[in-house]
Amino acid sequence: MNLARLISETAAKSPDKIAIIFAGKTWTYRDFDRQVQDYANTLDRLGIKKGDRVAVQLPKCVEFLFFHFAILSIGAISLPLNPDYRPQEIVYFLTDSSSSLFVTTSEHLSKVRSAIQHLSELKILLKEELLPPISEAVPLKYSTGDDDIAMICYTSGTTGRCKGAAISHRNLITNIRALHKAWEWSDRDILLHVLPLFHVHGLNVAALGCLYAGATMIMFEKFEPRQVWETLASKNCTLFMGVPTIYQRLINEWGKLEPQPEPTKMRLFISGSAPLSDQQFYQFENITGFRILERYGMTETGMNASNHITPEHRKAKSVGFPLEGVEIRIVDRDGNDVAITEVGEIWIRGANVFQGYWGMPEKTTESFTEGWFHTGDLGFQDPNDGNRLYLVGRAKELIITGGFNVYPKEIENVMESHEAVKESAVIGLPDTDFGEKVVAAIALKDEISTTAEELIAHCKSRLVPYKCPKQIFFVSELPRNAMGKIQKNILAQQINTSLQGNSPYENL
Ligand code: AMP
């Protein structure tokens, strides 16, 4: 089964139903399907074939969705890219994936043009210069096997190199079916969509969930807390999805609203991508009367676990229970199951689990044991509550800031490419807004001086903004253990102590 064809079949059931509302315009399911066919015809005319990679770097817009499903419909592979990626990052993604086509805007192209000009085989399609649709769009028929790759989603990598998670049509379809059942989606749902479309949360969970259900999606380009509260109430929305940072800002906004909104049709506020604190869980419920439903997933596996649809069965700090078709094990360092209630690494198996990292067979092999994917997340199950799953941390050195993943190595590499930096260590510090914020400790070379501002600017020109350190702490040397390994836990303590003592943060 081809995912795009599945959506087309849904569209055929209620062609006059409104599928998307965006920037004051409305698209019915007939419009949506027709647009996807038009775009697929454009891709065909450009010579894009089954299995070709098509990178899409667009700001949040409906055309992003048309392209994505058009790419899938012809059996090509969609590669969604963050519009904030810097030229150096774009070159890496286009090269690593050997993309045939880069879909972008003229504004983005002007920033990246010189960096990609050596990619002589790469075709470029500008959103503004789409070919006029042919009079009668011909539905393109490419055979797509269930295990064919539908998309490659790049995630931050432990080694500093981003990894492309190759996700199949079967992965996406089985996962969305499981979510539909768990969250009781229907064509009566109205989803308010404020998440980015280049990330699995906004694309494979929120947007796909809506289109698969034949429901309506009100899409905003940016998240504005006041606008969200007003729209949830005035447009009779039933569903909302966000990361904890979004919920924190909705909580902060609530007290400022007069009169307070009454989103009476809302049935689910869903949170994921980062830990929702119990404070956020209870505060949101106390002020709004709604209990947030927390779920757990990742790029490589789609959604793994979710709290129950009935509010009484949702618990703070718990991500609930495995979704249908998802198997979970909790193991120790040797890969043996831990005793129940003990903390270990979460391993996942099921039709939701991705096909491997694009062009990284060794990385793929080391991420699996007999079909079980090693998530790098630490958790435990509560046998007194039906083996309810709790996440407690990460075995991997991952920072999650505002719902986005950052592996320190990538930022350290960029820091150390600055001529004044001898060595660097990047860590996440707790932050009420972002959950964690990226900060860097830097030891400078004796002979060259620099400032925190200069180092941050150095990162900003090479890395997407959410990966850039918010603060720099200069140190004479980094704490190391006897093996010479940097002790980031000690570094974090030193930084916290320094912050509490109100010492100037640049001088620990
Ligand atoms: P991503 O691949 O960007 O979706 O990030 C996946 C990672 O986000 C997971 O491996 C977890 O570490 C984290 N994550 C996702 N959902 C949750 C959650 N509900 N609570 C805590 N961490 C989460």
What is this structure's SSE topology?
Blueprint: H1 3-13, E1 18-22, E2 25-28, H2 29-45, E3 53-56, H3 62-73, E4 77-80, H4 87-97, E5 101-104, H5 106-116, E6 123-126, E7 149-155, E8 163-168, H6 169-183, E9 190-193, H7 200-213, E10 216-219, H8 225-234, E11 239-242, H9 244-254, E12 268-271, H10 278-288, E13 293-298, E14 302-306, E15 318-322, E16 327-331, E17 344-349, E18 356-357, H11 361-366, E19 368-369, E20 372-382, E21 388-394, E22 399-401, E23 404-406, H12 408-416, E24 421-431, E25 435-444, H13 452-460, E26 471-474, H14 488-500
Parallel strand pairs: 1-10, 3-4, 3-5, 5-6, 9-10, 9-11, 11-12, 12-13, 25-26
Antiparallel strand pairs: 1-2, 7-8, 8-18, 13-14, 14-15, 15-21, 16-17, 17-20, 19-20, 20-21, 22-23, 24-25
Helix pairs in contact: 1-2, 2-3, 4-5, 6-7, 8-9, 9-10
Bound molecules: adenosine monophosphate (AMP).
Describe the structure.
The chain has helices spanning 3-13, 29-45, 62-73, 87-97, 106-116, 169-183, 200-213, 225-234, 244-254, 278-288, 361-366, 408-416, 452-460, 488-500, and strands at 18-22, 25-28, 53-56, 77-80, 101-104, 123-126, 149-155, 163-168, 190-193, 216-219, 239-242, 268-271, 293-298, 302-306, 318-322, 327-331, 344-349, 356-357, 368-369, 372-382, 388-394, 399-401, 404-406, 421-431, 435-444, 471-474. Mean pLDDT is 93; it is low at 502-508. It has three domains: 28-144, Rossmann fold, CATH 3.40.50.980; 178-395, 3-Layer(aba) Sandwich (Rossmann fold), CATH 3.40.50.12780; 398-507, 2-Layer Sandwich (GMP Synthetase, Chain A, domain 3). The N and C termini lie far apart (58 Å). Strand 1 and strand 2 (25-28) form a beta hairpin. Helices cover 31% and strands 26% of the residues. With 508 residues, it is of the alpha/beta class. It is globular. The strands form five sheets. Strands 1, 2, 9, 10, 11, 12, 13, 14, 15, 16, 17, 19, 20 and 21 form a 14-stranded mixed beta sheet that branches. The structure holds adenosine monophosphate. Adenosine monophosphate (AMP) binds at residues 155, 200, 272-275, 294, 296-299, 319, 375, 377, 391, 394, 400, 405.
